[in-house]
Amino acid sequence: MARFYCPLPLVTGQVMDLPATAARHVQVLRMQPGHTLTLFNGEGGEFSAEVQHMGRSDVRVVVGEHRDVECEALCQVHLAVGMPANERMDWLVEKATELGVHRITPLMTERSVVRLTGERAEKKQAHWQAVAASASEQCGRNRVPLIDLPERLDAWLARQTPQADVVHGVLSLHASTQPLNALRDEAAEKPQTWVLLNGPEGGLSDAEDAAARNKGFVALSLGERVLRAETAALGALALLTLV
User: Fold this and answer.
1) CA 88 to CA 60: how far, in whole Å?
2) Which of 165, 224, 234, 239 is deepest in the core (most CB within 10 A)?
3) Domains in the chain: how many in total?
4) Residue 130, CA distances (Å) to 83, 92, 168 in order
5) 65-88 pLDDT per residue, tens
6) Strands (E), 57-175
7) Residue 183 in contact with residue 167, Cβ under 8 Å?
8) Which of 70, 8, 74 is nearest to 39 (CA)?
9) Tens digit of each residue's pLDDT (9 = 90 or more) over 148-182
10) Domain of 63?
């Protein structure tokens, strides 16, 4: 059944017009009155719905029963990533959503190619949030990960504080690292909340890597191969969420 993100209060029995994005998708699928679909608003579970009216630019539905369905990962993972260039950030957001990421913070680092501030940053954030919503529709998630406004790594690091129930890790190309899967197994009996920092193309600089370690981040590795920035982030995420 077709699924649509509807970031509005949903109540069984209500008659409502779908938001513009969802309405366009329904029209593209050529759905007609009487067709059924699924709505979710990110607050938990999903609702059945039936198309009541199809206009030229509006779609009206009747909201049906609520289903307490969730497919979230057992652990919450917050990815803080140096933004990759070109369209690879779109791809990273999409695939990270499918893998179950809880939150993504796009970062600007010393080696970042992409620099975003002001209105450009806000537009990119909105775009990536829409990518995450679309990926949630596709993969069956009823909660949409939060995509933060892009910011500088140093500003983000300054706000990080050690927490007993959170594992902070940095994917490092430097020495003195430990395998992520080993640390995952050690933490298996504890609350599974992770903050993972990963650099852009070329990795974090020596100073940035040291700054993360000084803030209590554990230096982690994914093996002997050198992975692209977005591949490393998704590989680490998969190790934590697909177990």
Assistant:
1) 36
2) 234
3) 2
4) 17, 13, 27
5) 999 999 999 899 999 999 988 789
6) 59-67, 76-82, 103-108, 146-147, 151-152, 167-171
7) yes
8) 8
9) 999 999 999 999 998 888 999 999 988 789 999 98
10) 3-67
